[in-house]
Fold:
Amino acid sequence: MQLKNNTLLSLLMQWIILGSIVGVVVGSTTTILLELNDFLGDDIRLKHDWLIFLLPFAGLLIGYIYMRFGKVMFNHSQSDTSELNNLVIKAVHGQKQVPKRMGLIVYLGTFLTVLFGGSTGREGAAIQMGGSVAATVNQLFRMNNIDKKVVLMSGISAGFGSAFGAPITGTVFGMEIATLGKLKWEAVLPCMTASFVAHFVTTAVWHHHHEIFTIAVVPETSVKTFFIVILLSIIFSLVSVLYCQLRHGIEKISTKLFKQNHMKRAFVGGVIIAILTWLIGSQNYNGRGLQILEQAFTEDVPPFAFLAKLIFTAITLGTGFVGGEAIPLFFIGATLGNTLHAFIDLPLSFFVALGLIAVFSGGTNTPIAAFLLALEMFNGKGLEFFFIACVISYLLSGTHGLWPAQKIYEPKSKLYQTKLGETIKQAEKRKKR
Structure:
């Protein structure tokens, strides 16, 4: 018994040490990402509107970087870093490997996209950097195949936890992102360690301050309120599906149209975004759009802001630019909630918060992480409503999602008739036959 206890203690210490290493490195690199994104997006781009017209040329450069340096061979199998988060998910499943250079490439791509006005977020770069750091750790410590997957999941947790100041959410997000209907509890200790350490490094060591969103008033619990929340969650879920389908549709069409030439795809996408920005006469929907997102919690925003952001982001990422999709989902859900508030008499900030969380849950297929995000982001207010919103949005999003590489371990419902072990992409293809 003593021997077993010593073995277990050694294993626990191993995961704590490895998780801490991943957390320190990812927390530091994510802080650089956050600070530079703020500088490039707020201090430079917003003060120089003309930069938007250079977005097509930024697209050419991003396309060149991915075509020239983004494909790496591992034992006769090629890993393409332009698959972004999907490549990290495939690596968790043991299908691909994450190149060490992926983190640097996605950083450069994200900075170029943000500086010149592409509509994108930041957690994608943080997650991919986490995967890149985890791949380096795996190589240095010569981890076996099973442990490699666990370390990769801890890298994802560290990236998300530090990017949003949500270490509890980050812990579960790393465990939940790869597979629908299953959590790999073996990974909970390294994921938790990496996420909390990364969060600590970002906030306490480097003193980065995350955005704060506040719910001013939570409605009273009643049958009427629950009914409204259910109705709203259905709408938010459908909008998350709309975004995912449009984004993947644009990617598929542009890839086919330009014969997988990343440079041409991104150039044309940049031209379209520049023209749309000029026609609208505003850069509210370029970059992360944090100003409008924050405004949505306290006052009215343009009624079709959610649709504009949805289109801008789908075109930006669908044509080969780089960045995260969590903040765009936050923006879409929050501004849609702001618009719907005009028709239903419930507190504005509650509507906005509900939309933010529900659209994120449906788009990412991570309902537990989404619920925990509501817990951390809004200080535990209205948890019964957020729980319902996360579950309903997740269920109704069906076989859709941001990342086609996600595997289906358990179907959301027998009505979807999915096969165990198939990916979202495979499920969608089979439905169209």
User: Anything to note?
Assistant: Residues 35 and 208 are 8 Å apart (CA to CA). The chain has a mean pLDDT of 91.
